[in-house]
Amino acid sequence: MGERRRIVLKMSGEALASSASDETIDASMVERIAVEIARARDELDLELAVMVGGGNIWRGTTGAGAGMDRATSDTMGMLGTVINALALQDALEHQGQVTRVLSAVQMAEVAEPYIRRRAIRHLEKGRVVVFAAGMGNPYFTTDTSAALRAAEIEAEMLCKGTHGGVDGVYTADPRLDSSATKYDEVSFMEVVSKDLRVMDLTAITFCKDNGLPIRVFDLMGAGNIMKALGGEPIGTLVR
Ligand code: UDP
Prior knowledge:
Elements: E1 6-11, H1 27-44, E2 47-52, H2 60-65, H3 70-94, E3 99-103, E4 112-113, H4 116-124, E5 128-132, H5 142-152, E6 157-162, E7 185-186, H6 188-193, H7 201-209, E8 214-218, H8 224-229, E9 236-238
Parallel strand pairs: 1-2, 1-6, 2-5, 3-4, 3-5, 6-8, 7-9
Antiparallel strand pairs: 8-9
Helix pairs in contact: 1-3, 5-7
């Protein structure tokens, strides 16, 4: 078997929601993303793992801000990612992708436990892996979890799909500053020193320390997942 490129795609939970639906998950959004992921995986013949967030359901900081115990609130957030992961698995399987959900929090009836070698085995067999429950520890985000898993499974790149209309890394927040310009490429150092908002600092420094490049792109644009996973110069490359 030839060497296939191995990539981790991070998508936020909010990408699965929409204003058209009262629900936290809009099935038509999930389907749309699954169609794009399936097409990219097939045409590019990739080994693809997806880390899905949970922000459409719960964020740990929301509860902590209201006086909840942070660890409890973060655990609620992690469980939210499992709901999203199951929705994505279902949609990917409807697109003909054999998909395994690997959860960092054990729940044997629902998903396989995350075991590094098992994740790699699934990928080698051509299955899509969906990582659920982040890394299983409170005080972390799914961005950092995606970076960790990418390093663990020796992925060549982390693709971070955004959903808020910002299609890469800018010199300033383009929603607030009309003079902001987009970087085609930017170094980890610059992201940190200029406090550019890409991912949280924990995730950025982890990627820097482990030489893991990040492609930041607009997940929602038609065909963008294919371009990002295919290594085309879309969005911003951080390395
Ligand atoms: N979370 C956590 N540990 C992890 C991953 C996630 O505690 O390893 C919690 C955290 O509270 C976070 C929530 O799960 O706010 C949802 O994840 P995230 O905010 O990263 O989702 P996204 O913004 O990508 O939708």
